[in-house]
Amino acid sequence: MKYVKVGIVGANGYSGAELIRLLLQHPYASIEVLISNSTTGSLLTEQYPQFQDIIHMKLDTFNINEIASRVELLFFATPSGVANKIIPLCLEKGIKCIDLSGDFRLRNGDDYVHWYGFEHENVEYLSKAVYGLAEYNEEKIRNSQLIANPGCFPTATLLGLLPALQGEWIDPNSIIIDGKTGVSGAGRKPKVGSLFSEVNENVNAYKIGHHQHIPEIEQSIFDVTGNKVNISFTTHLIPMTRGIMCTMYTKLVKKGTIDEVHQYYEDIFKDSEFVRVRPIGNIPATKEVYGSNYCDIGLYVDERTDRLIIVSVIDNLVKGASGQAIQNMNLVNGWDRSAGLASAPIFP
Amino acid sequence: MKYVKVGIVGANGYSGAELIRLLLQHPYASIEVLISNSTTGSLLTEQYPQFQDIIHMKLDTFNINEIASRVELLFFATPSGVANKIIPLCLEKGIKCIDLSGDFRLRNGDDYVHWYGFEHENVEYLSKAVYGLAEYNEEKIRNSQLIANPGCFPTATLLGLLPALQGEWIDPNSIIIDGKTGVSGAGRKPKVGSLFSEVNENVNAYKIGHHQHIPEIEQSIFDVTGNKVNISFTTHLIPMTRGIMCTMYTKLVKKGTIDEVHQYYEDIFKDSEFVRVRPIGNIPATKEVYGSNYCDIGLYVDERTDRLIIVSVIDNLVKGASGQAIQNMNLVNGWDRSAGLASAPIFP
Amino acid sequence: MKYVKVGIVGANGYSGAELIRLLLQHPYASIEVLISNSTTGSLLTEQYPQFQDIIHMKLDTFNINEIASRVELLFFATPSGVANKIIPLCLEKGIKCIDLSGDFRLRNGDDYVHWYGFEHENVEYLSKAVYGLAEYNEEKIRNSQLIANPGCFPTATLLGLLPALQGEWIDPNSIIIDGKTGVSGAGRKPKVGSLFSEVNENVNAYKIGHHQHIPEIEQSIFDVTGNKVNISFTTHLIPMTRGIMCTMYTKLVKKGTIDEVHQYYEDIFKDSEFVRVRPIGNIPATKEVYGSNYCDIGLYVDERTDRLIIVSVIDNLVKGASGQAIQNMNLVNGWDRSAGLASAPIFP
Amino acid sequence: MKYVKVGIVGANGYSGAELIRLLLQHPYASIEVLISNSTTGSLLTEQYPQFQDIIHMKLDTFNINEIASRVELLFFATPSGVANKIIPLCLEKGIKCIDLSGDFRLRNGDDYVHWYGFEHENVEYLSKAVYGLAEYNEEKIRNSQLIANPGCFPTATLLGLLPALQGEWIDPNSIIIDGKTGVSGAGRKPKVGSLFSEVNENVNAYKIGHHQHIPEIEQSIFDVTGNKVNISFTTHLIPMTRGIMCTMYTKLVKKGTIDEVHQYYEDIFKDSEFVRVRPIGNIPATKEVYGSNYCDIGLYVDERTDRLIIVSVIDNLVKGASGQAIQNMNLVNGWDRSAGLASAPIFP
Question: Rounded distance, CA A143 to CA C17, Å?
Fold first, then answer.
């Protein structure tokens, strides 16, 4: 028996499809409603034939009353600028909301115009949202109606970086983050830059200095450590579908051996089943978390330059989106943290 | 509680690693022994870091007495020419054996020299082996001690082709199979032809007319339908890791509409949870079964040429190897056919 | 000094860009006009930064009078259904036209509705067009004003197949063509099916039985050999950018050893600098012609089934489009066949 | 007529094959000798079928006297640790040597043990070698008998970084280099880490803090600018065959707008035909230099962090190896810098 009825708004995107895959193996949640504006009326299997004989549902249009009668919790896997208009309606109806888009991640409403390019229509709700970085916000998440699920890059970045800041090992003003991502993060909407012929055999640096994940990362660093920082954050599109690696360069301010830093990380994450600190000398590769909810972290102290280099990897569609959303759903409902999320990575 | 203790010989190869991944999510089987000659003594996680914090085991050398004391069932994920020497020892100790290599698939011992290039050392055991194509051999498999798990191409080919032959829709002498495979089937042993730089942006036809899967396919066609056939079978290496597609060209001998042929296929597979006959007009792609135990089949009747074209796709490491091996383990133990195998495909 | 002034209509597509690359290294032709409706007014380097510091031109709109005053020869690298409207205007102005689209390849105007889905507006010009398969039509091409440059699949298919038919080695009714192509053939226009996330780690069979290249291939087979045939032709999208392989299955009707068939092919192509018949036992891979104008052919006689298997590979954007177009331009102008086309393939 | 006779030692590797491709289109140099220890006696086309009908040569073993009688210039495309033993013999015979390996790049012989893991056998020759970074060492190269061709990463790094240091725009101690490379740089020798199944859908950080290109880059920075620096240098293997991108993070010390910095770069490279400084706002992607000898540079001033971010891309087998070697051969022989190197990049 499944206890909680859930729905997905934006079921036709890649994060939506990944939510469906993960929810199918969840012991307590059942999918009741799938919403897609662009493909309303079609069968899910017309969009995603992999679900044939597994789940037979139609994609519906958004109707708040009908949805309210059918689900207790809604995932929003919508493009930027959509959820901010709809979520308040859902909250009023008593539906718990987990927003995978960025619409409720920033506390300062004005930032949406600057970083996202749209005007937020319900800024008064920003303070009600809890940032869903489960490893750092578990208690608040448990008691929230509205969870702003972290971005893919922020997830990889923050899990790798926060312990170094908490332990005051590094200079907060020295942080440089070099991100590499697969192209599924760009979604299923067709655009030239996401075509196979453009992405294959290619690396592309994009949005240098003005990526919308910058304020999200800086805000979380402040929340957890009290440091107001300006990070350097550069993202690269590389020829793969899934996976994010963040290579992070930081200046050590405390004399520390790799053993001490490594032990500190292990202590921080000793109860976090989805963060795996790699043994010293071992740096994770993205494929080693493929399809799973893990975030793997590797550490290197470069004595020639007094820098701590942190490498953090996730599957952008799982821990960077849908898996983390389910982790948050588990917290909200008081279930096992890893319910439905226990699969090992697929390799090769 | 897990009921049955199993081991894997050849745990360091890709099929071995995939067996581990799938067994970890199996409700009734527990992994007790991992054997690898090439990496004996190392930790599994040194070879496959994806398993950190999930399974902590050493890779051992093969010792029949120790193994016999620790497991009831052994998977052989070894290269061709290995299992034929060892399996008889294991059977004598009462260990059930599921061989993922080709060593017990052919009934005629001489064929091993011709098609595989080695001399089989225990030909008297060939008749004791049951061919593990579960959709066609279920009863025999249930009662067997030694299961010859089908090859990757034969699995895709036979599931797609046999109904057309059973229904006498096609001329058995007209069969042409054009196979496309990802490179993981070639294993983890380094060779020039498997290097990224050689495989990427490339298609390669190999072993034309003398692939070792030819006699296996022809033998099974004979077993199921009584037809002695010579097939044309050509395999192509394409730039992907997982996945096999077999496009099969056959001459229609019975006037049949696509609806009739399609219905016939649906009837044949109505109780087979791992075979999905696609709706008319819908041809499966390999990624739509990625990471899963499904075999998806698409059908097309070309009226211009009176040919039935059958497209069959599998994940070569799952339904084409380790997943089917677990399906066979389930039958041997009287468990649910789909125990441990219920995951949906990962897409994209 | 460059002797002939040329222009490209559809310069913003992949074939257009490839024409530019090849024309830049051509000794006798200079690019004077680049036309693109979708990106009129922009710089070529805004669309294709690889040309920075090499060619500095704007993309213009189509104006017949201005074009007529500036070029002697026009390449049409336009989508299907465009060139048929414009080319007659150009011919009237005395401009030689080489059409890389399918608009003038079929002699029967009605076929355009059936196979291409558009109504041809100038069917009376179909008989004036010469099919630009240079290895078979050289004399006619030399004297033509309008050349219908062959499609990518037809080029690979016909060069591999015609000798077997000319020599009457095979049954013309037995022809089955299994084509595999990179995705650049689908063009730069964004669509879901061409996205990296959909193509990577995937094989996709498409347009089974109704690909628009079927009538083109059958028409050419008739023209060269007098055989009216119905071919089976199935195309597969595989995860690469460039390259086509056609694996062709045919029934031998004449007893012939592989040596005899091979010798026959070598004789046919002994003066064709762009067709390389591989030594017996050697099957070509697509990457071995990457970036070049070669068509490589491998032959295999399967004695178990009395079939001749022919494998033919090209770079779809060069020999399958822009390279062959330049080869045709060379013939039309009486230049060396290989002017501007002599580069070796790039590997790896 | 070709004026200079050249040979290649290590012709069977990827850099060797790329030298052959480029030399074939060179107007003044002819290939007379191909040396390969691992495949002596075989035809080049057995190793690299792409050269069929283009160049017909055997791979020979190394015999100094015979080589001396047949060539004037030798390229060494050998693994680390080979050329240092052989090149002195060649120099004594009056053969000019261009070494694509690292054996003569470092001035301090002891560094070879530390960074390369071998003992250099002819340290007295290190001072005779000229570092072949043509854009910075042109005069010395012209007069040299022994050219140490730069490494792939150092080429991309130095061309991007040196102007910022020369202009004293940046703090020399702030340099962080994040490199991404295709796998062809790892060569054709089979190893697990270069297999398609391991590289595809994966990113891998390797040799963090101890890559052998670190001392080479630091030495060149010192030579050109007088700065003794310790750089942070991290390399990542990404799923592509060709291409290197270096993303470089540096601290601005001089107040400078992006316009001023950009102008400074344009001035430095105004006579360098192979370095293309991209317009402001435009960051290069690796595929935009594919197959060509270009190094493209993009610049970004991040005002939030006062950092100058420099992105530099090359084709690792061309500008990062064989193309630059030919550029050096051109200088040594007093030819046009771009003889044989004028091809535009191949895209897509």
Answer: 57
Q: Which of A183, A191, A197 sits opposite C241 (nearest CB)?
A: A197
Per-residue confidence (pLDDT) for residue C1, from 0 to 100: 58
Chain B residues closer than 8 Å to D199 by CB:
196
pLDDT of residue B3: 87
The 3-class secondary structure across chain B, one letter per residue, is CCCEEEEEECCCCHHHHHHHHHHHCCCCEEEEEEECCCCCCCEHHHHCHHHCCCCCCECECCCHHHHHHHCCEEEECCCCCCHHHHHHHHHHCCCEEEECCCCCCCCCCHHHHHHHCCCCCCHHHHHHCEECCHHHHHHHHHCCCEEECCCHHHHHHHHHHHHHHHCCCECHHHCEEEEEECHHHHCCCCCHHHEHHHHCCCCEEECCCCCCHHHHHHHHHHHHHCCCCCCEEEEEECCCCCCEEEEEEEEECCCCCHHHHHHHHHHHCCCCCCEEECCCCCCCCHHHHCCCCCEEEEEEEECCCCEEEEEEEECCCHHHHHHHHHHHHHHHCCCCCCCCCCCCCCCC
Phi and psi of C58, rounded to 5°?
A: -95, 155
Task: Find the residue in B nearest to C285 (Cα).
Answer: B204
Catalytic, D152? Answer yes
pLDDT class for A255, splitting at 50, 70, 90? confident
Compute the residue count for chain A. Answer: 348
Cβ contact (<8 Å) for A25 and B344? yes
Domain B4-128 class? alpha beta
Q: Do D194 and B190 touch (CB under 8 A)?
A: yes
Q: Coil, strand, or helix at residue D222?
A: helix
pLDDT tens digits, one per residue of B109-148:
999 999 999 999 999 999 999 999 999 999 999 999 999 9
Kindly report the pTM of this predicted structure: 0.98
What separation in angstroms does the CA of B345 have from each of B54, B81, B314, C348, D223? 22, 32, 11, 32, 56
How many other β-carbons are positioned within 10 Å of the β-carbon of residue D235?
A: 21
Task: Give chain A's mean pLDDT.
Answer: 97
- pLDDT value of residue C143: 96
CA distance B69 to chain A (A): 28
Domain ranges of chain D: 4-128, 153-318
Which of A12, A192, A196 should we substitute to test contact with C (largest number of C Cβ atoms within 10 Å)? Answer: A196
Predicted pLDDT of residue D1? 58
- Of the residues A90, A152, A246, A295, only one is catalytic, namely A152
Q: What single-letter amino acid sits at B243?
A: G
Fold of the C153-316 domain:
Dihydrodipicolinate Reductase; domain 2 (3.30.360)
CA dist D176 → A221, B320, C160, C247, D170 (Å): 22, 46, 53, 50, 12
Question: Which residues on neighbouring strands pair with residue C35, listed in sequence order?
Answer: C9, C60
Size of interface C-D (CB pairs under 8 A): 82
| Tokens encoding C105 | 């390849």
- pLDDT for C192 beyond 90: yes
**Pick from A50, A292, A347: which is nearest to B17 by CB?**
A347
Beta bridge partners of B97: B74, B146
- Give the fold, CATH level 3, of D153-318: Dihydrodipicolinate Reductase; domain 2 (3.30.360)
Q: How far is Cα B282 from Cα B311, in angstroms, rounded to an integer?
A: 10
D274: closest CA of chain C, how far (Å): 10
How far, CA to CA in Å, does A86 sit from each of A89, A91, A125, D258?
6, 9, 11, 41
Q: What is the pLDDT of residues A303-337, one digit of tens each?
A: 999 999 999 999 999 999 999 999 999 999 999 99
For helices D14-24 and D323-332, angle between their N-to-C axes, nearest 10 degrees: 50
User: CA-CA distance, C112 to B88, in Å (whole number)?
Assistant: 65
Query: Distance between CA B108 and CA C80 in Å, rounded?
Result: 55
Tokens at residue C280, please?
């017996």
